[in-house]
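Lab notes, practical 5.
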Amino acid sequence: MEEFSKQELEAARLLFSGPCDFILGVAGLEQLPAANRAEVAFAGRSNVGKSSLLNALTGRSNLARTSNTPGRTQQLNFFDLGGALYLVDMPGYGYAKVSKTQRAQWDQLMRDYLRGRPNLRCTFILVDSRHRLKESDEHMMSMLDEAAVPYRIILTKCDKAKKAELEKVKADLNAKLKKHPASYPYFLQTSSIKDIGIADLRAVIASMQ
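Output from the prediction step:
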């Protein structure tokens, strides 16, 4: 895990406390905004806490909608972070109650986006800290490996995980990451509710400008 100076943490806090606006939702590559700045994307199983994490990062309550209904995000949602970065909320995968056709369309959209976006610096895959990697998580990791897009795992909801349970998840994750060439060897532990790991994640993202 990287260590950041007070100055770096403060600069990242200021970046994320500034303007952050929804730009557009993309359902096809022809709709993508110009690749004129760095961007980072957030992926994860439906209901893993992506919206809550984006809200926590930006200090807002409704930047990204939260919902107990899996599969709410059905397109690539772009947010402009102070003109410095794009934050991209990717479609949730896993539990979403959608047709096979819709699921295949989401999968193709993600593949096309990952392979054709030169300014994509990193994709963050969110994993519930109470559960080990699921098949759908590893499918996403394999897509990123194939596209040669760097990615990092973020464990969410760490405040809800029992210590012994969390240690097993971390051990399993460490073993799995060694088998994926595009993955970053370290992962982040976060809680949107308890503000755990949020400052460090901001600094990680800010360093990718």
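Observations recorded by the TA: Confidence is low (pLDDT under 50) at residues 66-72. The two ends are 19 Å apart (CA to CA).
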